[in-house]
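agent> fetching stored inputs for the magnesium ion docking request
agent> found them:
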Amino acid sequence: MDYAIEMLNIRKEFPGIVANDNITVQLQKGEIHALLGENGAGKSTLMNVLFGLYQPEKGEIRVNGKPVNITNPNIANGLGIGMVHQHFMLVEPFTVTQNIVLGSEPTNKFGKIDLAKASKEIKELSDRYGLQVDPDAKISDISVGMQQRVEILKTLYRGAEVLIFDEPTAVLTPQEINELIDIMRSLIKEGKSIILITHKLKEIMEVCDRCTVIRKGKGIGTVNVADTNTTELASLMVGREVSFKTEKKTAEPKDIVLAIKDLFVRDSRKLDMVKGLNLDVRAGEIVGIAGVDGNGQSELIEAITGLSKTRSGSVTLSNKEITRLSPRKITESGLGHIPQDRHKYGLVLDYSVGENIVLQTYYQKPYSNASVLKYNEIFDKAEKIIEEYDVRTPSVYTKARALSGGNQQKAIIGREVDRSPKLLIAAQPTRGLDVGAIEFIHRKLIEERDKGSAILLVSFELDEIMNVSDRIAVMFDGKIVADVKPEDTNEQELGLLMAGSQVDKAGVISE
Amino acid sequence: DEDGAEDNTATEGNEEGTSGEDATSTDYSVAMVTDVGGVDDKSFNQSAWEGIQAWGEEHGLSQGEGFDYAQSTDKADYMPNLTRFVRDEYNLVYGIGFELKEDIQKAAEQYPDTNFAIVDDTVEADNAVSITFKEHQGSFLVGVAAAMKTTTNKVGFVGGVDSPLIKKFESGFIAGVKSVNPDIEVDVQYAESFADAAKGKLIATNMYDSGVDVIYHASGATGNGVFNQAKDIKQNDPEREIWVIGVDRDQHDEGTIGDHNVTLTSMVKRVDVAVQDVANRGMNGEFPGGEKLEYGLEQDGIDFAKTNEEAMTGEIITAVDEYKEKILSGEIEVPSTIEDLEAFEESL
Amino acid sequence: MFDILQSIIPTVLFYSAPLILTALGGVFSERSGVVNIGLEGLMVMGAFVGIVFNLTFADVFGVWTPWVSLIAATVIGALFSLIHAVASITFYANQVVSGVAINMLALGIGVYLTKVWYDKGQTDMVNQPFYTTDIPVLSNIPLIGTLFFEGVYVTSYLAIILAFVAWYVLYQTPFGLRLRAVGEHPMAADTNGIKVERMRYIAVLLSGALGGLGGSVFALTIASNFSHSTIVGQGFMSLAAVIFGKWHPLGAMGAALFFGLAQSLSVVSAGVPVLENIPQIILLIAPYLLTILALAGFIGRADAPRANGVPYIKGSR
Amino acid sequence: MTANNRLFGILVPVISVIVGLLAGAIIMLASGHNPIEGYAALWRGAFGDSYTLGETIRRTTPLILTGLAVAFAFKTGLFNIGAEGQVIVGWLASIWVGVAVEAPMIIHLPLAVLAGAVAGGLWGFIPGLLKAKLGVHEVIITIMMNYIALHVTNEIIRSILTDQATTTEPIAATASLASTWLQSITFYSRVHYGVLIALAAAFVMWFIIERTTYGYELKAVGFNRHASNYAGMNVSRNIILSMVLGGAFAGLAGTMEGLGTYGTISVMSGFTNLGFDGIAVALLGSNNAFGVVLAAILFGALKEGAGEMPTAAGVPTELVDIIIALIIFFVASSYIIRWALLRFKKGGNIDV
Ligand SMILES: Nc1ncnc2c1ncn2[C@@H]1O[C@H](COP(=O)(O)OP(=O)(O)OP(=O)(O)O)[C@@H](O)[C@H]1O
Ligand SMILES: Nc1ncnc2c1ncn2[C@@H]1O[C@H](COP(=O)(O)OP(=O)(O)OP(=O)(O)O)[C@@H](O)[C@H]1O
Ligand SMILES: [Mg+2]
Ligand SMILES: [Mg+2]
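agent> prediction call returned; pasting tokens
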């Protein structure tokens, strides 16, 4: 068999942890090979070893059958290995071209970077793979999907034959995911080979040829995708049966909890992003907001939660106007919020888990008295929450930074849900999490609904929207353009709605 | 305990020192505490130390045995330094510079058995003597020299920090200039620092550009900038007549530029003379406690430098000496404040 | 008006030159992601070396002494900054703190050695400082020649030229692109095969070289000797120029010239009718006040290089 | 992990100090001095008898406060390089009240102390406000504020507090922190009651930071501004509060010099350096109150003892500055010490 890459019996240790324990992955030429595993299983670590960012303690790497020693990314690049990282490796104030040539810049005879030449080459490369990247745009001005394509271009520019994608779809909208899949296929057609890390089993089934499963740092095995199904993959990964369809009773909506009227919100560039939006959410129902990223979802959430000011319109929570209240007053009025960016907003990473649990309530009884903190009460509470929400942490005194993404998310959800908010906003609550964690979080959201909370779920994952919501509001260009029941629609229809197509009364979609 | 023992001996020593009418020359010991300028500041600290060394050698003493100094790098060092000498049983402790005023005052009150002296300021205590100088007299004389030397009828004065002490220099200088020729303009600028050479140079550039040809500086290290600028002009145009007047001691060395020297003269403060004088009086049991001694031309405490023979022509020296006589005879009362200066100028 | 300009411009030039040079050093260092609050100390070291070298070798090098002294100060400045580099790049030290230590250390060493070598707290004045000259050819241009190129220090133009060189290097060459990338997103640079630590070392050494150069230019054009009070705050002003100039070489140069102008105005004011009646204290604090107002008002938020001050630890996020 | 960290937290400064002193010894040897004599003189100068002990305490007092001033801001992610200016205005304000007000001690003294704290706080308020509202870099603003404090204070001393003199009248006895009793037991050192204020301030800082909701907010804002905002904290207010309280501590340091040590204020031709030394103290003390006190004692002793070195051992006092700088380097580069310690006990498994 012709292998582009062989990673044989790789072992990589971090202080106190064996991240990769005797893992073997063999990438055939011209295949898309999936790497599957729970959060923290060791996938990124393995790929960082291949890319020369980490040195393995044991094991051998072969490229085209020849043993190699990859001690830094330069060597990997030289061997034709390129990596699209989970967290983008782009310099924001630079242009696309500058980012792509960085490290291998063409120069003219005065030692000046020949940007014009580079820009032209990049344009050609971009056209060849249908990437549609503007070489002169600044990274900070382009969308996440575009940034990812810049990352791909970066590897191609360096002549990569093998591309590693680390969770590329976690940050993409459904449309962008489809585009990415097309791009991957055209890369294969050009003779490249691809390693794809993803938590989305559907994607594996759709594009991958084979799949290697890793569990807790150990290689479980490699399967032909054609010979398996999602259920089998999931149980291989987690080591037990996993259900995908979340069980739930039909909703029993009660009074209106959240009422938004004619809301206008501007973003930091002073452009209107929410343009006259109207929406009601009732107690006991989950309303899912479907939409392509950048249609005003973030601004909507920021406006409801008081993180940014509304331009006009009103937001009421249980009949109380909260439009111009401070975040604290809004929280006190009964709002819970699982933020989209858990590292930026959800947690103070350098605080202990316990201190994070009282992030909004530290000034209230019983956590403090006359401004003096009562740590016993705080940590008691935290103990209860980590227990109830299965937050895996050495202790409540451990810094939040040390937790894996999934466990950080569980801690946030525990904190928000525990306050029994009247309204719970969950923004991308499962982004980047493995199926086990996703299942748990969905169950918790439904439990809350059943206890009578109103829940607003914002997600780019149509699966999630379809599975969890009782009602789906499609957001496009700053407005709610459709309000449908999941059982009355399908992903295709939603996709079109999200792209701005109109639905007439009869349910017929017109352009 | 040890501390107690040391304290006791300290007290005994002091008693001996002050009450000992039969004190021989070897018994008497003298020390000085510098201000932050340090003992080698090429200024009054250095001069004071030279005085003390001269005094010590004269009486067969050596550093550490009979006389010594302590360096202060920070205002906070003054008091510990003074106290150290008190406890080391020195009979007379000098504080050099007006910055030590409060500390000498306090030390004098706390240690009545030790004698103190402050240079450049005054304190009130029976066991302390205040040594000041009639800088205005010296400034007057160099003002005369400046007036004689200027060809543009514009001279300059660069002060360090605006304060009564430096005003004394300014007043005397202007009075000297105007005595020779009331039409000469005097450009006065303060750098607001004794250590800002850049500011000194900025001011000097500005003054020389505007036609000033003699600058008298009373500004410590800020004056480095003044010298620097004068020398730069001289380097580029050796024919141009450009002068600096130094302060506190003879700053002839600072003015050397090739074969030329831009230091016209310097207002010399003989701190060494004053320090030796007081030490001798103390040694002879005649310590002038509580007195405010003001050293001027009369006591040879103030002088002007004649090192630059080329520049200080006989004519200038004669003129300066004439005014010196007038001051000594009381014919001229040199103003030491701006108010006095105004009155003085009217009387011209 | 012409007269006023004629008296202001040369003073601005000589006052600003050391600040420009040192600020350029700051730009390099901070652009690479290493905060350099030790500019003051680097200047102290430069002034110390420049003076000591000048005093010691004046007989050997004659009229070339000041230039050779500058080179010596530049080299020693670079070597001295190695301490900051090792601490903050290799040992992940808090860069602000390491910079503060640099400041203390430079002054300590400078004065200590002065005392040990010369047995006094300050050196003598040098015999071979820089002198002003008329720049050949350029000074013959009417008006402009008189204003800008007569009676100036060559070092002032060295500083200005170096600012443009720094701009070219940072914004036009691969080296500059890499250096800035390292300061914005070191991990991205790393994955592109750029040696982050090496880039940062080079940048810090450059800041040491330029800081040393700035300090020695100050010593050999303005102070003429070395003592504990030779460099008092010029390094901090240079740091201010870095930030005021938004971490851009030409911006930093502009800021340094602005500081020079403010200082010069406070001196020249006596002869200028509009400025004459302003209390001296206002003129004294004007440079500082104007900087604050400028930062608060006109240029607002300055975006530091994103990874500035953050040690790059491979494999961490 | 926690136990290990705590151990490192203690070992790192201790080792740094030892290595710093060793380096100082090598420098003395290299420059032809006897290190044993040098350090003996240093020790005598700092702790030799009750007088030097008193002076060491006196010198430590403002260092504790400037150390707290810097540490406090650090906790909120701010770098207060302006302690220097805050010291100066605090000193000025306390003297102003001490000279200009007539009142019984029970009112006068607290009023003068308060004035110093308020002035320092005000000097911290301006950079805090600019940072919070306009995002202006606090480092540059505080540097500028230092110079403004220096010049304005000098001007006020000359034109308002005196008639063109360089030193004010001494404060009224009713505003003085000086203690004849403390002086009498320390052979007339200048140790004063201010040390109690400094220790109390350290306790207050510890309490605010570790035990109150204010401290919780301040630290949260320091760690993560966005999350703090999300959690309903007023980020701007916390930034300002942190600078104001830090400034107040520094202002108190100036007050110590004014009401305790000198009783006057003089025109200054340069900075006091108390503020800059505060940065070093804060660092060596790991930005925590107890650590700051210990670090201030160490630096106070080094600086006080230095005065004895030139006379007793011929060693220039600057050696102490070099030693302090080296200690700071080693603490800041604690990674190397941790690494060395881990190497040292290699074999034992390293639990993270
Ligand atoms: N730099 C590091 N230092 C120490 N430990 C690390 C480091 N990086 C990863 N680990 C450990 O290695 C394990 C594997 O991490 P890795 O990032 O490879 O997981 P992953 O499979 O990519 O997870 P995810 O699906 O969440 O991206 C983790 O449990 C973590 O504890
Ligand atoms: N420097 C480090 N030291 C110790 N552990 C680390 C370090 N860097 C990463 N880790 C660990 O790596 C593990 C991997 O985290 P994980 O991959 O689950 O996060 P993630 O899912 O990639 O985060 P995100 O939410 O950004 O996707 C975590 O357990 C984290 O604690
Ligand atoms: Mg990963
Ligand atoms: Mg992940």
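agent> quick read of the result: The first strand of chain B starts at residue 30 and ends at 33.
agent> awaiting further instructions
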